[in-house]
Amino acid sequence: MRKLAFSLLFYVTVLFLISPMATAEEKWIGDVNIRLGQKNLTPDHWKPVADQPMIGMDIDFGKESWPAHILLTLSGSARQASEKSSVITGPDIEGSTSEFGFGVKTHYLYEGFNPFLTLGLSWTNASLTGNPDTTGQVTDKDNYRMGIFLSGGVTYKIMEKFNVGGEIRLLRNSEVTLFGETGDADYISYSLILGWGF
């Protein structure tokens, strides 16, 4: 599946570069959007800190006639809990993730509405803090684990500049190892989008 995603991103990029519609005179457009919401990680590995508040930023840009734009994405999430975990014990457990990636985002604007799909590759840093052997608080990290993200959503332009909308995003194929337990940082996230266009 990763080979498929790499191939798709490569061919889409080449298509944009050779597209006869994308003339040098055509202006660049795009959006800078903030995502606020919740990231629901795989419960088997992350419980009781699987459901994490999240904040992120997406930047997409491209020529006005392109059917899809280049997408850069960044997000972070974290949660604390005192319940028992299958990986480590309490009393205070904290789980967090940070993610950055790139991909493509479809571009279609109709009367202010922009329904969109995204697809890309991302790298996740995962961290878990707790008390695995009753000797004290310990933090374990696993960094730069690659996965594949895809999403769907819609935004609406207010005064032709400001964006408001929502998105559902999935991450798959991201393997992480924390405290000797192999799992993943896969998730489904639900986000409110606030931003502006240029």
Overview of the structural elements:
There is one protein chain. By secondary structure, the chain is mainly β. 11% of the residues lie in helices and 65% in strands. The chain has 2 helices and 10 strands; from the N terminus they run αβαβββββββββ. The protein has an 8-stranded antiparallel barrel. Strands 8-9 form a two-stranded antiparallel sheet. The chain is elongated and about 65 Å long.
Concise description?
This protein is mainly β.
Structural class based on helices, strands and sheet pairing: mainly beta
Major sheet, described briefly?
8 strands, antiparallel, barrel
CATH topology: Porin
> Any idea how many domains?
1
State the separation between the terminal residues, measured CA to CA: 34 Å
SSE order in H/E notation?
A: HEHEEEEEEEEE
Poorly predicted regions: none
So, CATH architecture? Answer: Beta Barrel
Mean pLDDT: 86
Molecular shape: elongated
- Number of separate strands: 10
Helix amount: 10-25%
**Main sheet: strand order:** 1-2-3-4-5-6-7-10
Give the percentage of residues in beta strands: over 45%
CATH class: Mainly Beta
